[in-house]
Amino acid sequence: MNATQEKLKLKFAQALAAAFGTEYAGVDPILVAASNPKFGDYQANVALSLSKKLGQQPRAIASAIVEKLDISDICEQPEIAGPGFINLKLQTAYLEAQLNAIQADARLGVPAAKTPKREIVDFSSPNIAKEMHVGHLRSTIIGDSIARILEFQGHDVLRLNHVGDWGTQFGMLITYLREVYPEALTTANALDIGDLVSFYRKAKQRFDEDEVFQETARQEVVRLQAGATDTLHAWKLLCEQSRREFQVIYDLLNVQVTERGESFYNPLLPTVVEDLQSSGLLEENQGAQVVFLDGFTNREGEPLPLIVQKSDGGYNYATTDLAALRYRIQQDEAKRIIYVTDAGQGNHFAQFFQVAGKAGWIPDDVELVHVPFGLVLGEDGKKFKTRSGDTVRLRDLLDEAVIRARADLAARLQEEERTETAEFINEVSQVVGISAVKYADLSQNRTSNYIFSYDKMLDLKGNTAPYMLYAYARIQGISRKGGINFQELGDHAQVFLQHETELALAKYLLQLDEVINAVEQDLLPNRLCEYLYELSKKFNQFYDRNQGVRVLEAEEPFRTSRLVLCDLTAKTLRLGLSLLGIQVVERM
Ligand code: ARG
């Protein structure tokens, strides 16, 4: 709901009370956007829903409401249509006043959350010594955008990187490290182990072919859990190496995230199991400690257990998530915890949420949300791979996007016979390339799979980053062409709306709050992308020589008014894109 709808809702409450008694003040006016702009902007369907209760014809109810409805400062005289719809059309003067008000507002009229909360966004979360794959890229991009939107709304956001930095694979890795870099364990300095992914592969190979190695690896796991100094040192070396590699990606993407890996919760694991024991939920099943789940069954229809301690005494992914959940509720005092992972982990989240709920660990005012996303596919519709069939390294993927953006830019410069400095070319290719990857991901409904296509994401036309960036740069071009400093238009420059395309643009600009509110609730950043795309289209219609209006060549006071509309559009694009983690360029 946007600010105008909220105002109207209040007016309806008053009218309903005046017409039918105070007990009707709380009745939902069922205010929706008009299906056809011909009928106005909004439509209230409350008269139809009250007909039975009041025992009157809806049209009669509608007139009784309209008679008491005091909205002359917002809308034209309401019209009753069809069986009893109340059609509302916003007044031009009202729209003008709203736009005048948001011009000077850094938040562009979007109110901050009334009750700021502590919220945790658990995102990115790659695994040490394994590669950061496209799934982690999606998590990083989507999680960052969600965090940005919540931060903008004034929430106290903790961005957590739940790195997979603990587990039995470290036995194998450390044993291999001792073999190939014996000096690593005795020097205090950081070590360059090189490409960790191939390191992992080689370690795995050694593990699979050599029984002695396997036994040593198992002992290393025990030593790691017991905190043996040299083993811990080796573990740290591996983590540091991974961290440096992850950081390259975070820097390229301009993403901030605080590392709090699985190992952090390690000391808390035994009490998770003890507490499940004392709440009577724990059962022994084939030597393991488990909690049986409702609604999850195996093929035979028997209830499935969630294992919290394996028969060898070890803990697992779910135990760690249970410990993390408790810590986040008790120590971090989070009121909403958002987990951004691939949809394939849906059951994992549903299961440990259920166990935590049964154990009474989730207070009523705490909300747990799994934010799932689909797969990234290659252009052939299959799993995204390099031509040689290997998994794509994120570093290469992002570099390639920048290289292609640079080639596109070079072609355009040649076509337009422009010359630009190397600095300009570097900046624009970097911004366009990275933004294209981010926007292609965010503009899809995250729950669906999407096909990764450089050609599509870098297209200047369509719902793409280059299109949005171009729309922004084009508006800045207007100010350059007219020698106008948008900032100096003055906070008192008045908006006058005459033309149809101006009205359409104006109304759309005033809906930003509605979109941001929606994303805050449903955590679907693609809604914001759609809004910005639609806004750019509305702007292009307004600025179109044939369909729209003159701007720089218009007479005053319309010239200034239209420049204000241009500026507001640019500011909305810039703000909206920044919430997607996308930076704008003034020219491109
Ligand atoms: N490390 C996991 C993976 O790569 C993601 C962790 C997600 N967060 C969580 N609290 N489980 O799939």
Tell me what the structure shows.
The chain is globular, with a radius of gyration of 29 Å. The protein has 588 residues and is an alpha/beta fold. It is 51% helix and 11% strand. The protein has helices at 3-20, 46-54, 58-68, 92-103, 134-152, 169-180, 196-209, 211-226, 229-253, 269-278, 317-330, 346-358, 394-415, 422-442, 454-457, 465-481, 500-509, 512-522, 526-543, 558-579, and strands spanning 31-33, 42-44, 79-81, 85-88, 118-122, 156-161, 258-259, 283-285, 288-297, 303-309, 336-342, 367-373, 376-377, 450-451. The strands form 4 sheets. It has a 5-stranded parallel sheet with strand order 7-6-5-11-12. Strands 1-2-4-3 form a 4-stranded antiparallel sheet, with helices on one face. The model has no long low-confidence stretch (mean pLDDT 94). Among the domains are: 3-90, Arginyl tRNA synthetase N-terminal domain (Gyrase A, domain 2), CATH 3.30.1360; 168-255, no CATH class. Helix 17 (500-509) runs antiparallel to helix 19 and helix 17 packs parallel to helix 20. The chain has 20 helices and 14 strands. The structure holds arginine.
